[in-house]
UniProtKB/TrEMBL annotation:
GO terms for molecular function: carbohydrate binding; isomerase activity. This is Aldose 1-epimerase. One of its GO terms (biological process) is carbohydrate metabolic process. InterPro entries: Aldose_1/G6P_1-epimerase, Gal_mutarotase_sf_dom, GH-type_carb-bd. Monomer. Its cofactor is Ca(2+). Keywords: Calcium. It comes from the Bacteria.
Length: 262
């Protein structure tokens, strides 16, 4: 476990092997707690793909051929190491060597695919910075230029269980029942870099991003909500994850999320 504390001591973040398991602001918990109904995690990253691959026999097409990937990509199968830590910041890192076969944790209960791989090497950094005002999460992806990738961040936030919260953008208000109707394909909120979670009780959250431009909203329960910044919405109805859904690596790419309680 790792704990970050803001300068004013009013915000505390707890991390477990790189996973954000708690964000306390003025003693109010903002993050979905493991063991509660809903989802077994509190956050994760989706990379180098977002979405399911079973419709295409778990194969993803790249300029270097087709490679096995399971839902949301293989990054989650790798473990973070700690690169640096201070009182209110921490840098985690995952490294992958091209073509390395990785055991798929979904096999055999939830997937027929035992090994997944990707034909590009990459280093993936997760940089956490806690200030008095907000929690900032930056992803830095170092890879071969031209590597295709999708990226999504998948945090889960705590709700009060009464389905009376709203997610708002500059031109939308979306209710929890509406989001639940989206089911496993999630509710798309496209072409925006900022959303807010508005609550009847407790702190509201404003979520600002750089580099993503889209969100997915998902919850299987009324006590939590995943607000997921994504580079592209994958549930387009086609069997293949089309080339248009992928970014192309610049060698080093950065993406930011800032969670601002208010």
């Amino acid at each position: 476990m790792m704990i970050l504390i803001s300068e004013d001591k009013n915000s505390v973040v707890t991390l477990d092997k790189g996973e954000l398991i708690s964000y306390l602001k003025n003693n109010e918990e903002l993050i979905h707690q493991k063991g509660n109904p809903g989802w077994r995690n509190s956050d994760t990253e989706m990379f180098p793909i977002i979405g399911p691959t079973d419709a295409n026999k778990f194969l993803v097409s790249t300029p270097k051929g087709n490679y096995n990937q399971d839902q949301h990509g293989l990054l989650r199968e790798l473990e973070y190491s700690i690169e640096n830590q201070t009182k209110n910041t921490c840098v985690f890192k995952k490294k992958y060597a091209a073509y390395t076969a990785i055991e798929n944790s979904k096999f055999p209960d939830k997937s027929p695919i035992r090994l997944v791989s990707w034909p590009y090497s990459f280093t993936f950094k997760k940089i956490i910075e806690l200030t008095n005002e907000s929690l900032k999460i930056t992803f830095e992806i170092i890879a071969e230029k031209g590597m295709p990738f999708m990226l999504g961040y998948h945090p889960a936030f705590m709700l009060n269980g009464h389905s009376d919260e709203l997610v708002t953008t500059h031109n939308q208000e979306i209710s929890i029942p509406e989001i639940q109707k989206g089911g496993d394909t999630a509710y798309p909120v496209l072409n925006t870099s900022e959303v807010s979670l508005i609550k009847k009780t407790g702190l509201n959250l404003n979520i600002k991003t750089k580099g993503f431009h889209n969100f997915m909203l998902w919850t299987p329960a009324t006590n939590m909500l995943c607000i997921e910044p994504i580079t592209a919405y994958p549930y387009t109805g086609g069997e293949m994850l089309s080339k248009e859904l992928f970014n192309s690596s610049n060698g080093i790419d950065t993406f930011e999320i800032e969670i601002v309680p208010y």
